[in-house]
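Support case: user asked for a sample of complex input and structure output to validate their parser. Sending the pair below.
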Amino acid sequence: MAEEYWRWTESRWTDPDLKWQDAKIITAGVDVGSVSSQAVVMLDGRLYCYGNTRTGSNSPDSAVKVMNMALEGTGLKIEDLQYTVGTGYGRVNVPFGNRAITEIACHARGANFMYGPSVRTVLDMGGQDCKAIHCDDRGKVTNFLMNDKCAAGTGRGMEVFADLLSVPINDVGELSLKVEDEPPPVSSTCVVFAKSEASGLLREGWPKEKVLAAYCSAMAHRVFTLLERIGMEKEFAITGGIAKNVGVVSRLEKELGVKALKAKIDTQIAGAIGAALFAKALVEKEGKKK
Amino acid sequence: MLANYGYKDGSGDFFITIDTDQCDGCGACVQACPAGCFAVGEDPHDPLRDEPVAMVSETQRKKLKYACAACKPASGRGPLPCVQACPQNALVHSW
């Protein structure tokens, strides 16, 4: 059986200090991405629990699966959620969702929650797309640019390389930093051609860490050009799976001349956090109408 | 908000930027475009906005290079119908 080098660590977490029975507003956000899905539950706007898993071939099933994963062990059921917002690629397919909101708005809100009101530029490197977002101190989007036509700068691109080099994706970043001399980046921006180029480098005798360094460097530059287009305003934060790849992040920070804020929470749940916060805002808005 | 709709691929950068702070959802761009590149509706990226807003239609968003080709000939290119039609000057093309 083939080893699954693309398999990154799935996770779930519950805040042991919060009790949902005491909460007034219980909202949820579900981010069904093309590669990964996350579910977040918030109690009165405070992060209570979350789950992060691989999206399967069926979006509605993924939404239910990740929500149940988040709720595991809490005693809360899907029926107890007052309002759920779906986001991401599969947002309209969340069976228990009340509304769908695009991931751009949700990532800005989520980053504002995770990194604080000083964040102005958010870079989301997702499974199949890459977004550069400017936001204000309340997490409202003021400028955005998304590229979802091309795998360069996305998780899928990294999966291809992890698989090619037989390196588990969790280890790619650290391994790429073990090079003595930083090699030039892979010259192709297209992942398909970059893969061919990498095969050539391996045949020339390049060790794995050097090839990974070249690819991380190319990915960092690719993403840098996206940010250049809308401009960099500090503070800068990265969300999504590739934020956990220290090989790409460190090279990007070097090219930008700006350090990204570090998160204490799993960077992949930013979209779902934003969705849960929008859910709370919508509950409050509807409450005022009555 | 500056909404940059479009993409970057091996052949270049193709973005249409709509300044939603200026846009009032009048729909002039929808009428002016011969390729159906625009639509007006609820702002997908600002769920708390009440006013409708213009956006690039999802069917054309990832094909802008080709969708806009008719208005951007290699020579003799005039002002773009969509940009001219907008009374608020909210539209900009990146190419």
